[in-house]
Design a protein that fits this description.
- By secondary structure, this protein is mainly α.
- It has two domains: about 100 residues, no CATH class; about 170 residues.
- It contains 15 helices and no strands.
- The longest helix has about 45 residues.
- The two termini are about 45 Å apart.
Length: about 375
């Protein structure tokens, strides 16, 4: 009797261990193969979002291959058209960078020279620690602290960011090509997945339902994010224009683009607009007001409108979404923050339709 009771328990433990090892192996593979997986995932999500437009063109007599090319060409044209319209503001902002850097250097130098400032206190504490270390070592004079090469570090950071921008552009190009092929193929990929699901009609029906629900989830998410990002861009532009900040339209577009990245995008917008206001007005109080106004708007939109719309679209609890963003952000960086919510919605959709995974679906749902 004991042997019969222990065998299933041992068997279940072995199964759990194998599942855990399989999950760790999949996560490690996804981490190592990010250069391959990121464009593939972004391209598939883009094809899901553009599929209704291509289907509409097909209904009016345009072939899917031609319709996919037209939709991608229009999308690319809109992006480059927006860049063209904002080129003057961008050029003016770039031309002001040397002057802004000079202002920052002067402000930092004045802060450091203040005898009662925090920088002076930190410097005095460091000097005392160096003197104590020198006395303990038997030397009367503390060695001077080496100064870090600020310019070299800045140049290195700029070079790294330039290479990352090129990598992002390359990923977008690969994703656009994959999205075009998926759009041009129509339902071929869907039919093949249904065939691979199994020989029974029930398995194929469940697979088709999962794919249809994933289509709807991704499309709702991207439409929701488009509305939210437009609201963020318009609100940021209105606030900065009311405060008289230069290039308010450019900052509005930047805020809308950065808001695609949850949490981190809003934080970057607050810091960047506050710094821009400080460099323009040379007043810490006015810059703080600008940053507080942008932060209040981002909080209201993010926790109010965004949570309400995403909650209605996906019916997922906030804890699962936040943990998923942390996980995918660690896994794929900025791309992971961008695709984390659609991937979580995909997992939720599949888990709710597959019986052994329904516990995961219930954990993610609200």
């Amino acid at each position: 009797m004991d042997i019969e009771l222990q065998t299933p328990r041992r068997f279940r433990s072995a199964e759990c261990a194998l599942i855990a090892l399989a999950v760790v192996a999949v996560v490690a593979a996804a981490k190592l193969a990010d250069a391959f997986l990121v464009p593939v995932v972004v391209g598939m999500l883009a094809s899901y979002s553009l599929k209704p437009l291509v289907a509409w063109l097909e209904r009016i007599g345009v072939h899917r291959a031609v319709g996919g090319a037209i939709v991608l060409a229009i999308l690319t044209g809109l992006v480059f058209g927006g860049i063209f319209l904002l080129r003057d503001d961008a050029k003016a902002a770039i031309a002001e960078l040397p002057h802004a850097a000079r202002k920052l250097r002067i402000a930092a130098h004045e802060t450091a020279r203040r005898p009662e400032g925090p920088v002076a206190h930190v410097r005095a504490a460091a000097a005392e620690l160096n003197r104590a270390a020198a006395e303990a070592a038997g030397s009367g004079v503390a060695p001077p602290a080496p100064q870090p090469p600020v310019l070299t570090g800045l140049q290195k950071w700029l070079a790294e960011q330039s290479s990352r921008i090129l990598a992002v552009v390359a990923d977008l190009g690969i994703a656009a090509m994959l999205a075009y092929f998926l759009l041009a193929s129509g339902d071929t990929f869907r039919r093949k997945l249904a065939q691979l699901a199994g020989p029974t009609l029930a398995r194929r029906r469940i697979t088709i339902e999962i794919l249809d629900e994933i289509d709807a989830q991704v499309q709702r998410y991207l439409l929701t994010m488009l509305v939210i990002n437009v609201v963020v861009a318009l609100t940021t532009w209105a606030i900065l224009a009311a405060f008289g900040v230069d290039h308010a339209a450019l900052w509005g577009v930047i805020a809308g683009v950065l808001h695609v990245v949850p949490y981190a995008g809003s934080a970057l917008t607050i810091v960047a607009t506050g710094l821009a206001a400080f460099l323009q007005f040379e007043s810490a109080g006015r810059a703080l007001l600008v940053a507080l106004a942008i932060g209040a708007a981002a909080t209201l939109i993010g926790t109010g409108l965004s949570s309400w719309m995403l909650g209605r679209a996906f019916r997922m609890n906030a804890v699962a979404v936040f943990v998923a963003l942390l996980f995918f952000g660690w896994l794929w960086g900025g791309w992971g923050l961008l695709v984390g919510v659609p991937l979580l919605a995909t997992v939720k959709t599949a888990a709710e339709r597959i019986v052994p995974l329904r516990a995961i679906g219930a954990l993610i749902s609200r």
